[in-house]
Structure prediction request, 587 residues.
Amino acid sequence: MFKEAIYHRPKDNYAYVCTNNVLHIQIRTKKDDLKKVTLLHGDPYDWEGKQWQPTTTAMKKSGSDQLFDYWLVAVTPPFKRLRYGFILDDGTEVVCYTEKGFYSEPPVDDTAYYFCFPFINQADIFQAPAWVKNTVWYQIFPERFANGNRANNPENVIPWGSEEPSATNFFGGDLEGVIQKISYLKELGISGIYFTPIFKAYSNHKYDTIDYLEIDPQFGTKETLKTLIETCHQNGIKVMLDAVFNHSGFYFPPFQDVLQNGENSRYKDWFHTHDFPLTTEPRPNYDTFAFTPFMPKLKTENPEVKEYLLSVARYWVKEFDIDGWRLDVANEVDHAFWREFRREVKAIKPDLYILGEIWHDSMPWLRGDQFDAVMNYPFTTNILNLFARQTITTKEFIENMTNVIHMYPKNVNEVAFNLVGSHDTARILTQCSEDIDRAKQVFTLLLTFIGTPCIYYGDEIGMTGEMDPGCRKCMIWDQEQQNRELFEHVRKLIHLRREHPLLANDGELRFVLSGSDDSCLVYTKSDVSKTVVVVLNTSNKAVNYTVPVNISGKTVVNLWNDKALEISGGKLEVSLSGKGFAILLFY
Prediction:
C-alpha cells in the first residue's frame, strides 16, 4: 500500500455539507492502489462501556486522474457531528487511517484518534443562490454588442464593424442596443447576462474606472440601465455587472490628486505607492495591474478605500436590483475585503451571485465566506486542449477533468462559471481553426455538463477573432453573415438543457473509459430512474460505438431528434460521423 499518496483533510473539498445535513467525505489514494475503501464513522459520544460504537459505510471510487484515485461517500450524522476514519484495503493489507496515522486495527478506546467534523452549523454551509445552477449566461462587451442610441456615441465613433477592433477604436455599442436585442437572447435561450464594466472610464474596455458611481455616457444613463434591468427581469434574465476593485483607472480623481500633490495628497494612502513623485516610466513606482501605469492598484486594506468600494457595491445592488457581481482580478485583493464585501451585498440581496475572476485553484475563496463561484478556466483549458488544439487524448481529458471536478465540493461545482471564450481569450471558432464541427462539439460539452455555462457574445453565430483586441469585434447582426447552423445548434442545446435537468446539474456524473478505442469521449448523468449518455467522437473518422449502459427493459431516446432507438441483442450501438455526437436518454 502506497501510504505516502493517501490524503484527507476535514473541511473544504474533502469533508463538507452538501444538502439537508448530508456530509460528503472524500479521500485520495494512489491510482489503482486500493481495491476497497470503507468509511468508519460514528457519533463521538456513542459509547458502550469503554468502547466507541462506530459503523461502516462503503465508499465509491468517484474518479481517477493521472496520479490518484478519489473515493467519496455521503453520510447523514444523526446528531450533526461525526468522528471518522478510513478502512483501506489493497487486496493484501488492510489498515485503518486516522488523523493520527495508520493502525492495523481500528482504535475504539478513544475517538481522539479520528478525524473530526465537530458540528454541522448551518451558517458554515456553502450556499450559492439556487437560481444560478439553472442559468445559461451570455457575456456582453457593451461597446461591441449593439448601437441602439446614436445620440450618445462618443466623439470619435466609427461605423459599426468598419474596422478591425483595436485597443483605441470606438463603435458606439450601448445599453439601449442590448434592450433592443433582448428578443434575440430570449430566442437563444439565455437566462443571465454578464456585462463587462459599464462605469465611466477612459478606454473602450472600461476596466480603467474614472467614476464607479456613474454609467459611462457612451453607454447611456442610469435610467437606461434601470430600463434594461427591468426588461431583463420581465423576460426571466438575470443581470451581473463587473466590479473592478483591484485597481482604478489613471484618471480616477483620487489618483489624479496623488499625481498632482504627491505626499500632500489626502489620497496618498489609497494606492500602493513606493515613493514620490509618482512616475510611469520605465516602470511605475506604484503597484498596478500587471505593469500597466494606467491601472493603479487600490489599497483595499485602507478603511477609507474599503468603505468607498463597499458603498459602490451596495449602491448598484440596492438602487438597480442587479443579480450578481463579477469581480475583476479577484485573487489580488485581500481576503478580509471580500469577506466584508459578501456580508454587505448579501444583506441587501441574499440571492445575489458573487463571481470571482480567478484562473487557478480557488478553494481559499470558496468556503462560503467570500465568493459563490469563480470563472472556471481550468475547465476551459481542458476542453480546448481536446477539441480545439487536439493536444490531448480523451483519456487525458477525463483524467484532467476529474482533477478539476475534485478540486471543489459538489455544491461549488454546480455553480461554477464554465466558459470556453471571453473578452480575454481568442474566440472559440478561431481556437478550433474555424472548424464548425469542432466548435459544435465544444458547445455540446459545455451545455451538457455540470456548472453554469456562459457563451461569449457572437460565438454562437461563428464570429472569429484572435486574442484581445481581436476577440472584441462588433456583433454581426446581418443573418446572412451569421452561421445560422451553429446558432441553431447552440439554441437547441440550451433548450435540451432546460427540458432535461440531467443535462444540467441533476444526477451523478460519470466518465466512461472507452477501452482501446480512444476516439470517443463518453460521460453519463444518472438519477434513480433515468440516465443520459453523451458521446462525442473526437476523431475525423466515422465510428460505431457500443453504449456501456444496461439497457434491458429500458426505452432509449435520441434527444437530438426525439426518436426512440431500436435495441437488438441487448446492446445499443450508435453510429457517429467524424466529429459527431449523440445525446441519449435511457429510462
Observations:
- The radius of gyration is 26 Å.
- The longest strand covers residues 23-30.
- The chain has twelve helices and 30 strands.
